[in-house]
Amino acid sequence: MEGNYLLISDLDGTLLGDDDALENFSQWHDANRDVVRLVYNSGRFFDSVVDVVEQTALPEPDAVIGGVGTQIRQYPEGTRLLNGWPADAARWERDVIAAELRRYHQLEAQPDEFQAEFKLSYYAHDLDREFLDRLAAHLAAAGQQVQIIYSSARDLDVLPAGVDKGTAATQLANHWNYEPWQVLVSGDTGNDEAMFAQGFRGIVVANAHNDLKKLVAPPIYHAQASFAAGVQEGVEFWLAAAT
User: Which end of the chain is more exposed for a tag (fewer CB within 10 A), N or C?
Assistant: First the structure.
């Protein structure tokens, strides 16, 4: 196993957002690659993650979880790390789901670049829990088992049931034989929340949305710093706690 710890981090608003902090994080990670293995867990798809790694100071990861947990790819080859993931999409009929969702004027389909075989994404402002529950019940009545993830009071992702950033992170950690206490996760918005429900050690950056700032149950560390500086602060906290 390469690295005693596995850092699985969101990108936009977490590692990305402060160029100086990212440069410092990159230098720190280069010096600690033998201790901390790195994976990016993003709403972006794999090709977009490759582009942003090439265009910024982001260190190269060992793998990418993309499309809000619907892809798990080796970096930089892009080959699938877990064949058959998503594991159970038997009741996921993409065309049926898309047709049902077109009935809701509150939902605006995001551009094609944000859509995929196992991911339908929409802009939907200020939805309440009642609406989201009604949406899920509607799709269930249509014979579809889905997971609805709503974050930042704007972004709505519809995924196969049981698929999200958290379950994908667990699948990859298990594939690489990491115990939960060896896995560190970091994020800033509601679609990262599933990572904090897997028994991992969490890092919430200071610029996070309230979806994550409200999380108080251990093991979660709330950083004082924002963006990549907050991620580094959190990793250093958990490494020190383990000594």
Answer: C
